[in-house]
Structures are given as structure tokens and as C-alpha cells.
């Protein structure tokens, strides 16, 4: 059931292992995402999804791993390494400053300035352009983000990564705790990232949305990659079986990229 | 990746320019404006509170609202208000500095000893005292950032330790009289009203030019500009307050230098907080330190700098207090200095929990506390009553703030 991909992966990892004491959070896992592809990373609680995302975002150094970006061997020793390569992460907790407005949050840590004085007009202009292009709506760009809805906040957090011109965006459960309409808003945004040619990695527990936006599904169970499936409706049963281990726990097409 | 690739499909039913801020009806623009100024709305409550307090004391004592007494009030609050500026910065960061009272006393002591006992040039003595304050802040900030110790504990230790240092610096006499005209002149110099008018006119001109330029550059960038009326109000209101203050100062002793110093520091730090990279990062850390660290903001460096600033402002306040009281003694900087400086910042509308507030709350809070204290002095109330009323005002201010301002943020 391997998805045959012609494209060269943009970001690929091989032999990723990470132990926390006795827990094997990741055990010889491989992973790959191509430009313009949405890969859903699924698995039960504690399967190792967040751990793998942390490795890719440079916040967690694995015991072993071989990382290639754009065909070159690279190291992901720190978040700075990741952002230099163009790997941007939207964390589960969003990491927004509720007291600051939309423009400030979009530019947080990368403010436009002239001699230490903020260039508000320039930042607002870029914010308008970015949100416009992504069709993200907020009541006002000067609203503190603490007053926005969950979906709007999520969109701001995702949009923020784009100001750094990334090539891969990692999304850790971006739709958890969102209502139906807001969820759709975020998924729309994911589709737009794909249309722009970005590689997108999406962690989700929601099968419906996985099959709605993803191209491929990679299933982790107990720290191992147990299945790689095309995200087509017919495969939904197989994905669920791989997540729960109802397929007998035999790794199905593990590492099946190309 | 360029931002111009792949024209995004518009979601059904939305205006194509929906991301572009407040467009459309004037009502919508009005809403956008008011949410923009949520912090200023908090200040408005304090202003109303101040009007109430002034009305009460004006009715209770006919000398309260005289130019002489209000000038006195202004002189009384300059020192503690200056210390409060540092408190606001620390609170915005989401930290606290309990050592500011002791630091103000110690640094005033250092200035007095250098000038009076060692015959040092007064300006040099003042500069060295300010540097001593900065060094103290650097030490405390370094301990907080390097070991991750709560600032509450570190500066509580500082409160006690620097008080000890103050006793040591002052020596056996325990009290030093400050007579140098440069130092005492900080709080006893009054300029004719014309100087005040000239400064006010310059300030007004700067505000008008800045507003016009901001509107121009927003229009040039294709961004919405608010109604002209709002900009006029925004400039005219402070201008009206300034005119009233100048008329008041003019009909008494003139415009006090210490008030100009205090006001200048407030305006400067307010601009630093709202307009600079440092200020933006300060608010970001206060709002969500983890997020700030993740996006690469130099959290430790900014924490350190804020503790340095807080202690330096404490030193400056201590110097102003010494200048006004013409002496530094063992009690300088103790008693209610610390509490009033912190209470002032909080009453003025700066949150204790970081990331919300304004430097202007140092001035507003000092005015509230100063007015209550001054009014009760006029009424010759006992200090027992003064303490209780000041405490009650603090709690009341925080309760009003919690029930109105914060609820909007929780929503
Ligand atoms: N910092 C840590 N220290 C110790 N154990 C950890 C740590 N982080 C993760 N683990 C363990 O590693 C395993 C994988 O955790 P991970 O957070 O990656 O799971 P997940 O797939 O993201 O689960 P969820 O769906 O609940 O978010 C779990 O058993 C977890 O307890
Ligand atoms: Mg997780």
C-alpha cells in the first residue's frame, strides 16, 4: 500500500531514535515530506508524534538521527538551525502574546525597525498583505490577540510562520479545541500553504480532517512508524487499524517513501 | 518563497479585502479605535477617580484646590513618582522589585556622603549615585536571570541588604544635611510660566507633526486612517490638561524643575515602551515569556536591563527626595516609599501580572496617592487614618480594574 512518490523529499529524517529513561519515545523512525505536500502524522496518545515534531523543529536533540534537507545532510541542533533551514513550527500552545495586537504578534521577534524604533506602518502593511493573501479575518489588526477566537488565534500563529518565508511548516494539533467553522478556517489555511508549495506536517487525532487535507498519512505506534498510506477515503479503515494495532502490529510499508 | 505566489481562493461570502483592518462603516472604525486604546480606557478610570478625590477634598477643605497647594502636591509626588516609573517597567515584565525603597535611600546616601563629606562636585556625586543604582540593578537582575530565582525573593533580600548598606554609608552621625545649591536646586528651582508655555508649545508642535506624518505614511502605505476628529481629541485633551496645569503653576511659584524632570522621564519612557524594539520585547516577555523566548527574543538581556532601569529610577527618586528634604538620614527610602511606589503603579492601571499597563500610570498613581495624602494632611488627620485610607484606595482601584478591564481580556 505504499504511496509511490516521484518527488524528492524536501525534509527527510532517517533512523530517528529518542529514549526518555526507559521509554522509547521514538525507535528508528524515518519521516519525509515533499514540497507542496501535506503529510498527516497520526497515532495514539504517547505514540511519539510531538517528540518527532520537536526533533524536526530543533527543540529536542534525538539520540540518533540522520537529517537531510533539500538533498543535503544537515544538523538540527537548535530551533535556530531549523528556522535557518526554513522549518517553521506552530506549537500546540500557539505561543502568542495575548496582550499584544495582531501586527505585533505576527512580527514577534522579527520586528521591522529603524535604529531601534519600530516601523509600525511597514509592519502593519505587511500584516495586511499576508492576512489578505491567506484570507484570514480579524476584527482589527490592532486587537490584542487575547480577544480573538480560537480559530483566529490559530490562523495568526500559522500566518506568523510565513513571514519568515519557511519551506516546511510543522503544525501540532492545530484544530484541537476548535469549533466546526473555525476548524474549517484552519484547514483552508493548510490547503493554501500547500498551494504555495510548502511542505506541511500536520499532527491530528481527527481522521475526518486528516483525510480532508492530507496527501499522505504516516502512522506512529509506540514510537515506531507502522504505516504509510495515501490519504484517500478507502484507506481510512487501514489507518485506524494501524493506529490501534488491530492489524496485528506488523509494520505496514514502514519507510515507504519512494 | 515569495508572498506573491498562488493567488489564494477567497472563502465564500467574504469581502475580498477583509484582512485589511477596519474598513467600512464609521461605527466599525470607532470600535477598532476603542479596542486599540483599551489601555488608555484603563487610564480614564483613574482620571475619573482622581476627579472624585479632588472634588471630595475641595469640598472638605477650601485650600485644597488652590494653586499653592497643588504646586505643593506636584512637588510631593515627583520623587515617589520617579521611583514608580521603574516599578511600572518591572511590572510590565511580570516581575517585582521590592528593593527600590532601600536603593533610593542608599543612593541618596551615597550622593550626600560624596558631596558633603568628600567635597565632590554635586553633578559628579549625582551621576555616581545613579551609577550605583544601576550597578545594584545589574547585580539583582543577574541573580534573577542566572539562577532563575524569583525576583520577589532576590529583591526582598535586596530590601534588607541595601538598607544595611545605607546605614554603613551614612556612618555614626546617621544623618547628613544637604546644602549644595545644585542638589537642592533640583526641587527648589521654579521657572517662570513662559518657560512652561514654550515647552508646551514645542510639545504640541511635535505631537501635531508626528500625527500628520503618521497619517500621511499610513495613507501612502494604503492603510486605513482613523477619523481626524479622534486625532484632534487625542492631542487636544492632553493639551487642555497642560494649559490648566501651567495656569495653576503660573499663578503660584512658577513651573517646578522637579516636575519637569519627572514629566520628561515619564514621556521618554512611555515612548521607549511603545515605540522601540526594547519596549515591544518588554511587553512580549510580560505577556508570554515562553513565546518570547521561542521567537528568539533575548529574554535574559531585557530582564537584566529592566532591573538596571528600575534601580536607576529608584536612585533618581531618592536623589529628588533628598533634594526636597535637604537631608539624607537612616530613614530615607524606608517607611511607605516602597509601598507608595508600587501602589501608585498599580492604581495607575499597570497590571501586577505582566504585559499590561503604561508608564503614565506612574504619574496617575502618584497623583492619586499624593492627593489623598495631601488632602488628609490639610484636614489634619492622623497617620493611622491616612494609612487605612491609602490602603483602601489601592484595593478599590484594583477591584475596579479587575471587574472592568480584565473581564474584556478574559472573554
Ligand atoms: N520530556 C519527556 N520526558 C519523559 N518522557 C517523555 C517526554 N516527552 C515525551 N515523553 C514520552 O514519550 C512518549 C511519546 O510522547 P509524545 O508526546 O511524543 O506523544 P504524542 O504522540 O504527541 O501524544 P499525544 O497525542 O498525547 O500528544 C510518551 O510515552 C511520553 O510519555
Ligand atoms: Mg502531542
Automatic annotation (TrEMBL), chain A:
Keywords per UniProt: ATP-binding, Nucleotide-binding
Family matches, as Pfam families: ABC_tran (PF00005)
Keyword hit for ATP-binding: yes
Gene Ontology MF, one: ATP binding
Domain of life, per lineage: Bacteria
Lyase as UniProt keyword: no
ABC transporter domain residues: 11-247
PANTHER family: CARBOHYDRATE TRANSPORT ATP-BINDING PROTEIN MG119-RELATED, SUGAR ABC TRANSPORTER ATP-BINDING PROTEIN
Protein name per Swiss-Prot or TrEMBL: D-xylose transport system ATP-binding protein
UniProtKB/TrEMBL annotation, chain B:
Gene Ontology cellular-component terms listed: plasma membrane
Alphabetical list of InterPro entries matching this protein: ABC_transp_permease (IPR001851)
Chief location bin: membrane
Protein name: Xylose transport system permease protein XylH
Highest taxon listed in the record's lineage: Bacteria
Membrane topology: Multi-pass membrane protein
Compartments, as annotated in UniProt: Cell membrane
Molecular function via GO: transmembrane transporter activity
Species of provenance: Conexibacter arvalis
Phylogenetic placement of the source organism: Bacteria, Bacillati, Actinomycetota, Thermoleophilia, Solirubrobacterales
Keywords, alphabetical: Cell inner membrane, Cell membrane, Membrane, Sugar transport, Transmembrane, Transmembrane helix, Transport
Amino acid at each position: 500500500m505504499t504511496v509511490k512518490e516521484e518527488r524528492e523529499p524536501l525534509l527527510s529524517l532517517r533512523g530517528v531514535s529518542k529514549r526518555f529513561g526507559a521509554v522509547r519515545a521514538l525507535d528508528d523512525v524515518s519521516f519525509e515530506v515533499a514540497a507542496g505536500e501535506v503529510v498527516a502524522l497520526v497515532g495514539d496518545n504517547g505514540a511519539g508524534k510531538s517528540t518527532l515534531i520537536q526533533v524536526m523543529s530543533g527543540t529536542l536533540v534525538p539520540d540518533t538521527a540522520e537529517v537531510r534537507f533539500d538533498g543535503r545532510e544537515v544538523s538540527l541542533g537548535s530551533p535556530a538551525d531549523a528556522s535557518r533551514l526554513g522549518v517553521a513550527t506552530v506549537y500546540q500552545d500557539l505561543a502568542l502574546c495575548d496582550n499584544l495586537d495582531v501586527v505585533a504578534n505576527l512580527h514577534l521577534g522579527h520586528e521591522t525597525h529603524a535604529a531601534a524604533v519600530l516601523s509600525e506602518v511597514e509592519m502593519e502593511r505587511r500584516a495586511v498583505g499576508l492576512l489578505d493573501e491567506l484570507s484570514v479575518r480579524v476584527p482589527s489588526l490592532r486587537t490584542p490577540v487575547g480577544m480573538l477566537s480560537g480559530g483566529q488565534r490559530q490562523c495568526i500563529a500559522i500566518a506568523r510562520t510565513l513571514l519568515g518565508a519557511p519551506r516546511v511548516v510543522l503544525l501540532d494539533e492545530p484544530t484541537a479545541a476548535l469549533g466546526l467553522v473555525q476548524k474549517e478556517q484552519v484547514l483552508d489555511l493548510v490547503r493554501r500553504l500547500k498551494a504555495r508549495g510548502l511542505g506541511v506536517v500536520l499532527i491530528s487525532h481527527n481522521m475526518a480532517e486528516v483525510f480532508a487535507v492530507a496527501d499522505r498519512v504516516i502512522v506512529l505506534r509506540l514510537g515506531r512508524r507502522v504505516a504509510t498510506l495515501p490519504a484517500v477515503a478507502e484507506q481510512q479503515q487501514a489507518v485506524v487499524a494501524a493506529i490501534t494495532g488491530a492489524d496485528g502490529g506488523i509494520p505496514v510499508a514502514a519507510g515507504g517513501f519512494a | 518563497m515569495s508572498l506573491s505566489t498562488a493567488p489564494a481562493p477567497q472563502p465564500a461570502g467574504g469581502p475580498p479585502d477583509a484582512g485589511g483592518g477596519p474598513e467600512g462603516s464609521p461605527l466599525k472604525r470607532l470600535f477598532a479605535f476603542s479596542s486599540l486604546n483599551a489601555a488608555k480606557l484603563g487610564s480614564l478610570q483613574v482620571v475619573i477617580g482622581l476627579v472624585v478625590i479632588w472634588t471630595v477634598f475641595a469640598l472638605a477643605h477650601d485650600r485644597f484646590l488652590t494653586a499653592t497647594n497643588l504646586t505643593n502636591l506636584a512637588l510631593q509626588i515627583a520623587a515617589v513618582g520617579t521611583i514608580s516609573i521603574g516599578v511600572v517597567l518591572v511590572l510590565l515584565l511580570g516581575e517585582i522589585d521590592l528593593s527600590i525603597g532601600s536603593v533610593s535611600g542608599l543612593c541618596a546616601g551615597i550622593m550626600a556622603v560624596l558631596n558633603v563629606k568628600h567635597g565632590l562636585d554635586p553633578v559628579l556625586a549625582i551621576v555616581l549615585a545613579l551609577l550605583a543604582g544601576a550597578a545594584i540593578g545589574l547585580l539583582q537582575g543577574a541573580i534573577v536571570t542566572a539562577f532563575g530565582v524569583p525576583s520577589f525573593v532576590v529583591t526582598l533580600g535586596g530590601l534588607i541588604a541595601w538598607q544595611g548598606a545605607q546605614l554603613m554609608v551614612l556612618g555614626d552621625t546617621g544623618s547628613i544635611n544637604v546644602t549644595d545649591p545644585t542638589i537642592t536646586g533640583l526641587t527648589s528651582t521654579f521657572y517662570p510660566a513662559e518657560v512652561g508655555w514654550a515647552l508646551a508649545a514645542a510639545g504640541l508642535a511635535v505631537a501635531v507633526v508626528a500625527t500628520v506624518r503618521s497619517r500621511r505614511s499610513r495613507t501612502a502605505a494604503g492603510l486605513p486612517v482613523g477619523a481626524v476628529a479622534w486625532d484632534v481629541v487625542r492631542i487636544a485633551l492632553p493639551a487642555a490638561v497642560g494649559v490648566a496645569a501651567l495656569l495653576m503653576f503660573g499663578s503660584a511659584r512658577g513651573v517646578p524643575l522637579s516636575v519637569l524632570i519627572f514629566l520628561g522621564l515619564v514621556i521618554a519612557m512611555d515612548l521607549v515602551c511603545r515605540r522601540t524594539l526594547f519596549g515591544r520585547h518588554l511587553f512580549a516577555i510580560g505577556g508570554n515569556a515562553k513565546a518570547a523566548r521561542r521567537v528568539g527574543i533575548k529574554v535574559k538581556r531585557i530582564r537584566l536591563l529592566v532591573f538596571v532601569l528600575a534601580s536607576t529610577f529608584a536612585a533618581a527618586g531618592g536623589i529628588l527626595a533628598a533634594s526636597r528634604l535637604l537631608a539624607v538620614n537612616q530613614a530615607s527610602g524606608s517607611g511607605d516609599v516602597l509601598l507608595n511606589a508600587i501602589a501608585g503603579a498599580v492604581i495607575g492601571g499597570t497590571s501586577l501580572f505582566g504585559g499590561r499597563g503604561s508608564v503614565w500610570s506612574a504619574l496617575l498613581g502618584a497623583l492619586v496617592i499624593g492627593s489623598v495624602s495631601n488632602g488628609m494632611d490639610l484636614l489634619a488627620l492622623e497617620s493611622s487614618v491616612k494609612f487605612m485610607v491609602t490602603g483602601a484606595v489601592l484595593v478599590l482601584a484594583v477591584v475596579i480594574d479587575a471587574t472592568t478591564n480584565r473581564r474584556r481580556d478574559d472573554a
